[in-house]
Amino acid sequence: MEVKIFEPISFCFGVKRAIELVNKIREEYPYNNIYLFGELIHNKSVMDDLALKGINVVEFSKNSAEVKLNSFKKGDIVIFSAHGHDKNYEEILIKNGVKYFDSTCPIVKINLNRISKANGDVIFVGKEGHPETLASLSKGKNVYLYDINSKFDYSQIKSEQVYVMNQTTLSIFELKRIFKDIKEHFPNAIFTDEICNESRIRQENIASISDDYDLVIVIGDKNSSNTTKLFDIANKNKNRKNYLVSNLDEVKTIDLSQHKKVALFSGTSCPKYIIDEIFEYLRGI
Fold first, then answer.
1. CATH class of the region 107-191
2. How many whole angstroms separate alpha carbon 7 and alpha carbon 168?
3. Class of domain 13-105
4. What digits encode the pLDDT tens for the residues 135-155?
5. N or C: less crowded end of the chain, CB within 10 Å?
């Protein structure tokens, strides 16, 4: 079987930075309780590895966040995830004398700063409940969610100046459709198309892959937004088989007997060793 890995592959800069930060904190504070406030990134293999190092994940919702933040004690260390967070969360920890670190992706930070400075209404395009969406909506009462899975109520927007920003892990093709809809209502809106560049390249590559590939495998966690968007784009081509897998065991359940040429892609939070395992397995068929 002919197998090709399409670059970029594995971790993006923001994910690498977040994982390196957590490992460094574990080394510097070997005896402290360390808590991730929400999943650092959306990949079970990575999170399982961090759990083995004694790093605990605290799950929360918008309604339970304050209670859980107030449960931390002096000596505990809290790390905010790469997806961004409500700045008020930091104030709670500071008040209680709890040390914290911020692993927010630099690209997400840029977006959050832009939202904070917007002198009008902001339409934020994202997935309801996603951590990056929650962080963006926390920036002010002038921020309104355009949920990618729902219709938007344009009557909410009262300002003459409208800004449009988006979750950084969405599909560029999905955004194009939504931006067109917004422009029809607000022709003078200011758009900030801030998609993670590595995600953008991967999406463009998978959308333009040649027809001689009869199989596409997207590797990554099924809870990862950028990974599922890659798979959605691949799946638009019904003339070939497309699969989303998390690990080698899932690849082994696929009937590969009729396939001759396979393209491998990954989400930005997928460890390289998983990709390498799958690559070597497929090459041996």
1. alpha beta
2. 19
3. alpha beta
4. 999 999 999 999 999 999 999
5. C
